[in-house]
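Dear support,

I submitted the protein below through the web form. The confirmation email said the job was done, but the results page showed an empty box. After a refresh the structure appeared. I'm attaching both so you can tell me whether what I see now is the final result or a partial one.
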Amino acid sequence: MFEESFMGPPPLATTVKVMLTIWCIILVPWLPFCIMGTGMAFEGGYTLGAYVSVVTFWMYPALLGVAYFFRRRKPELIWLPVLTLIPLLGSSVFH
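What the results page shows now:
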């Protein structure tokens, strides 16, 4: 019962370490693109595509934060940033 508190948190799996590194590397160029893309999304009007792009821009950093926060308790959540692809793939249906 007390072994976990004495030994510390369990080590991260290799998959979790690699995917966190990849997601954080992708985040670096994503942030300037996210800031510019949010401002330019509504230049064509308030369409569904504009809202989908804004949600996609801001969903990736939020999902990455959730995956990082829960990396030890729920290592399966490391795949959460992949969910940003769903609006991108679904936006082609709306056009």
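Response: this is the final, complete result; the empty box was a page-load delay. The chain has a mean pLDDT of 82.
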